[in-house]
Amino acid sequence: MTNISKRALVLFSGGQDSSTCLAWALERYDYVETIGFDYGQRHAIELSMRPQLLQKMRALSPVWDGKLGEDHIIDLSLISQLSQTAMTENIAIEMQANGLPNTFVPGRNLMFMLTAATLAYRRQLEVLVGGMCETDFSGYPDCRDDSLKALQVAINLGMASRLTIETPLMWIDKAQSWHLAEQLGGQALIEVIRQDTHTCYLGERGALHPWGHGCGSCPACDLRAKGYLEYIRSKEK
């Protein structure tokens, strides 16, 4: 799986998907850096989880430890100033008239990827890795494969570069994401993801559920819990 000619930058939030993507990149590339974004998110606890999560990822494998480079945190609080959403304001999660949930933050993933590309250009990193997924998602248009492919073209035209955007979770569901994590790092990685990542939109840690920490009722918790249950059931067959 290793591609030693490539250096990657992983969009790493501290959640299940980005942690799985980080493991995927560490298996595939020779050198990997990480980037996270502080955009005034309601679940800002994910940012505080990142340092210990990165240390635990290092501890899983001496090879991964040797490949994992610098971590970057970027202030994108501008995002929360541009729009009011359930991800940035203490408001109820609900569907909007346009058919999208109000957890959709317009332009967020586009800005994330463009910012990551700018950093990658300066750091001479050739691959951007993100956890966007079109299989298990809430209809967010900036998670779609077409959107990311178009963005890759625009970035490379605008920077005269040859950056590649990789989305290893794009066509798999949450249960398959748990299976992928197991394939990449065994049960040890499953436990790190289960115990140390944060996905809950409400920023709640609380008790440790079988699938991880969280409120257990928001869309992110619901998706994660259902995927974990399906993953466990498939292993029992």
TrEMBL record:
Pathway(s) of this molecule: Purine metabolism; 7-cyano-7-deazaguanine biosynthesis
**Alphabetized GO MF terms:** ligase activity
Instruction: Relay the cofactor remark from the entry.
Output: Binds 1 zinc ion per subunit.
The EC number(s) given in the record are 6.3.4.20
SUPFAM superfamilies in the record: Adenine nucleotide alpha hydrolases-like
For this UniProt entry, which residues form the secretion signal? Answer: none
Q: Which domain of life is it from?
A: Bacteria
Q: Keywords in UniProt for this one?
A: ATP-binding, Ligase, Metal-binding, Nucleotide-binding, Queuosine biosynthesis, Zinc
Residues that, per the record, bind ATP: 12-22
What the entry lists under Pfam families is as follows: QueC (PF06508)
Necessary cofactors: Zn(2+)
What the entry lists under InterPro entries is as follows:
QueC (IPR018317), Rossmann-like_a/b/a_fold (IPR014729)
Show the catalytic activity: 7-carboxy-7-carbaguanine + NH4(+) + 2 ATP = 7-cyano-7-carbaguanine + 2 AMP + 2 diphosphate + 2 H(+)
Q: What class of enzyme is it?
A: ligase
Q: Which residues bind Zn(2+)?
A: 200, 215, 218, 221
Function, as annotated: Catalyzes the ATP-dependent conversion of 7-carboxy-7-deazaguanine (CDG) to 7-cyano-7-deazaguanine (preQ(0)).
Into which family does the record put it?
Belongs to the QueC family.
PANTHER family tied to this protein: 7-CYANO-7-DEAZAGUANINE SYNTHASE
The entry's protein name is 7-cyano-7-deazaguanine synthase
Q: What is the source species?
A: Undibacterium danionis
> What is the name of the gene encoding this protein?
queC
